[in-house]
Amino acid sequence: MIINISKIQHFSVGDGDGIRTTVFFKGCNLRCPWCHNPENLTSSPCSMACPGKPGKEILGKYVFPGEILSELLEDKDFYEASGGGITFSGGEVMLQADGAAELGRLLKNEGVSVTIDTAGSIPYTEFEKLNTFVDEYLYDIKTADSEKYRSIGGNLSLVTDNLSRLIRDSKSVRVRIPLIPGFNTDIPSINSVGKLLSSLKITDADLIPFHRLGSSKYEALGLEYRYRDTEPLSSDELGIIEKEYSKYMKIKVEK
Amino acid sequence: MKIFRELNKELKEKREGSYTPYYYRYLGYKKDLAARPADLRANGIHSLFTATTPVILKNELIAGNRLSLFTNNINPVVLEYAKNTVDRFRERWFETCRDHFAPDYRRILSLGIPGFINEIDASLLRHRNDGEKCETLRSMRLTLVGFSEMIGNYISAAEKSLTDKEYNKERLEGIINTGRALLKGKPSSFKEALQLVWYCHNAFLMEERYAMALGRLDQYLYPFYKNDTEKGLITDDEVTELLENIFIRLQDDVVNICIGGQNVRGECEINGLSLCILRAVGNCNVPGPNLSLRLTKNTPDEFLDECLKVIGTGLGYPAIMNDDINIAALKKYGYDEEDVYDYCMVGCIENFISGKQPPWSDSIFNTPGFLDFVFNDGISETGHTVGINTGRLESIKTMDDFMHAYERQLEYGADEYYSRINSASDSLNQKYIPDPFMSCFCYDCIGRGLDIHNGGAKYPSVHGAVTMGIGTVSDSLAAIEKVVFIDKEATLEEFRDALNSNFEGYEVLREKLLAAPKYGNNDDFVDKYAVWFIDYLSSLFEKYHTYDGGRFYIAAAANINNIYSGSVTNATPDGRKRGEPLSDAASPGYGRDTKGPTSTVNSVSKPDYTKVACGTVVNQKYSPEMFSDEKRGKLLAIIRTLFKKGGQEIQINATSREILKKAMDEPENYSDLVVRVSGFSAFYVTLDRAVQLDILNRTQHE
Fold this sequence. Notes:
By secondary structure, chain A is an alpha/beta fold. Chain A has helices at residues 65-73, 76-82, 97-109, 124-130, 146-151, 156-168, 187-199, 215-221, 235-246; strands at 3-12, 20-25, 46-49, 56-59, 61-63, 85-89, 114-118, 136-140, 173-179, 204-209, 250-253. Chain A is globular, with a radius of gyration of 18 Å. The mean pLDDT of chain B is 94.
């Protein structure tokens, strides 16, 4: 089973525990306008002009999971020393569940832990292909408003349904909430997400504040970035949001 | 405000007059200008220690400074004459074992000054029929007597200040009582022991020595610390305060302090005092106390984490050494086992057998520079240097041929290097420039009745050939192999022309060179050359001996000499342009380790560093966020994994590029910004612009 990836990034320190290597899967079924990995939206290869470097970098290649295994195992000593492992991110990994499962199986055989970063708007049958090989899901909840979910291409009931099934199947899940100014940071939005997660017995969540570090990628790809002029949340605003969410669960703000 | 901050202010106050240690030395020399060398030096040192009244600062908990060596109102003609007289009796310099020495503090702490003098007297008795040895011993004795008198003068100065209301009576009494105890016998408390060490260190500073290491401070002071803390005589906070009081004075110097390490039984020797030292260095936050951690497998993670917190302040200390590798490296040189396990570092990172060998020396071996000779018939126009002619480029048909030619250049270069170092030592008559005071602090000069440079030291002197540019060389060889011999996209003649024209008109070729595999990305194609680099160079220097029969080590460290060496090195086949810095120390080339720190570690741990007895430096820079409570564990895992894989050293800078850039633009606002340079730390704004840029350009991870 072949997989379509854009990049393998060593020493990822933002996605999951310890020192990790992240495999970015190409292609996504959502279209969040704030996305900071726009190169992974489409499944077709794209070319990106890197500042300071001549020529363009082609992102996106089809590989067999076994082909990239040795590169992923290069840092095995670091995973062991730090409690880290491999993260599959994207794009939406679950769109390539068969290939991801094969890669997961290979890594499991090597004793390497696998974390999957997903937005969850995919039929649960895809999760079932992967559950055996995955140690933890980083699971995005972007809003509790089904209309808003639809506006970015997602399906709220599918997202919540999958989340409760993962919990029922005893999978380790870490819920992550992106904080997008103007989309989900007003008090009513926070409360509805809080209530939704409480009803699913979620006790912990990470808040991921909006940043614009991906804006240069839009430029390099020749795409328009609708969030280019959106200011990141101030620490005061973050404080208010954190306090509000803390009414419902234990909160960690990613920095 | 903390006492050490007040002391720092006091130290920075402007002084009347000029700093003239030579004048006081002259006063001793002139007592008998025709004296034999040892007596002459001893007279000079005795006078340096005693001819002037010591100064006590209000915030000194531990006495000892050099302010007494200022002169005022001395006729300039006399000063000039004094300077000329002193200069006539040459002094040693770095390459001829002047400083970079870790004195045998353990021994003086166990015997005290009177005990040391007794030992000399006993040795005089044993050697009474050997005139030369008696002369040497008498000269040592005179310097120690002068040293005692100086402590007596400190006591008197403190007594005089008792009536001065600006002084704190309790502090002065502390200095008086401690001094009296030291004159009477061996130290019996932590404070007395630290005061004795500081009086000694300050005496070496008065002799104008630089980079005198304090060595394993947490080990030789530990018995005093343990006794006093167990009996409740002193708290950790008080210990830290005393240490701060001396560390704050170590600015403008590179004073190596070693903590941790294992003993012969493999037990980690970290103790409560190690933590006090770490905290005191962190609190002072000045360059100068060059803290080194001998990290063992069983050093608690909690201690390493404390070290990372200090590093995270931006200080860059401690540098972290792989104890297992250093011990394995030193064991190859025939030192007694207990001496190997008691090693420390001097200067930046150089391994040293504490108090048992003459001062360290090293020099630059510009490894990448020899590539130019292969391409240009043995003549480097850029370096203004000449190698040998290893034949026409057409005759080089394979990569093996190229390596053979390069190795022949290096072999010749090593001979040339050796001749340069030894002609420097040979130019000195070892008996003509004795060091009687320093000899007292090197085992077994007293027992043998011999000067430290003349067979007194237990082990002979060692020299370190500091090999430049492991990254530049590896990348260059990989580029030649790939582009010339595998892809066959250019000939060696085209390489030569491209290098000699600094790539002007050869931009396309340069792109190919830049695209070849680079050291630091865990790619064996290029990493194999780094393995070769260490293997070959260490074997190359094995055959040489120093003037007194010691060995040549190699080092993979650069200090900041990769910048100078780069400035006199032609363009190199890795795509580096003429004059640009070489790769730094044992690190990959700037910005060429693009896969992140784990891949860098995977690469730099491939060479066999047990062949690098002097030591290596691997610089990594992380943004401050990596030092947060949440992420620091990842750095810890990086260090542990590097060492598990056989890496020898790592030092970490924690300053963001933004701050460094701002500091270059607004130096006035960043006068206290300390950064790790190479084997040492410095105030960033005081560095040359080239060095600043260099630090800025070191790959920053995350």
